[in-house]
Amino acid sequence: MRQQIFLSASLAGALVLSACAEKADETVERAFQEVNVIDESNLNDVMLTVADPNEAVAHFQRTLKGSPDRIELQRGLAHSLIRAKRTTEGTAAWKKVVSMKGATSADHVQLAGAFVRSGEWDAAKAELDQVPPTHETYERYRLEAVVADAGKDWKRADSFYEIATGLTTKPAKVMNNWGYSKLTRGDFAGAERLFGEAIRQNHGLFTAKNNLVLARGAQRNYTLPVIPMDQTERALLLHTLALSAVKQGDVKVGENLLREAIDTHPQHFEEASRSLSALENG
């Protein structure tokens, strides 16, 4: 009898231990799943930022084979294709994103951006028109401004550029774009002001420096502005100013500026030398 009680107790204990072991296994498995999700999320973030864009494309394509309905993976693929400058594929990927359950206004903005990159202005405008006015983001208004620019709707472009600059802590690039828009319209003074503001926001933005010199040259102001520049940049800007002077018909001024550019450059300035030689030889 005592032996039977002992066996029953042992069996009950074994069942309890078995149940505990199963519960522990479930807990461990769940923990590993959570870790895997965290690790995958971190990996996806890395792929979207610091990874080589083509490696990122391959990563998201592989991951999507096992989870084709996960919209965040499709977004990752679309972002990576655009980063890799594979615009046609990127546009197709963003089209797929906006057709999926869970697509957002931000996704439509990204698709509009892809259309802009491929020069499909009407498609970009149509996509932006689907975005509700409550979606007020820098990227949305930056694209609205660019699309309005392409349609020569200057009033709308100026309005959208102004809104975009107020929605970012780094407005230098959009100010540069706005300035270039003014430059193409012939508003050289307005362009000069915006390029100057862009440079004040970002001293390293050479495109804005070059555009500023173009705006000054268009007004026949052939002196370099007082802005941060190293010796190589100074030479390049003098070259731009020289070509602007020649374009305005001030050939002698252009020749002198080219000589100064050649003397300023820390290395042999082949492009400026060729330009000067062409002018001197008539």
Automatic annotation (TrEMBL):
Keyword Signal in record: yes
Keyword Iron-sulfur: no
Gene3D superfamilies: Tetratricopeptide repeat domain
Keyword terms of this UniProt record: Signal
SUPFAM superfamilies: TPR-like
Endpoints of the signal sequence: 1-24
InterPro entries xrefs: TPR-like_helical_dom_sf (IPR011990)
Protein's UniProt name: Lipoprotein
Organism: Leisingera methylohalidivorans DSM 14336
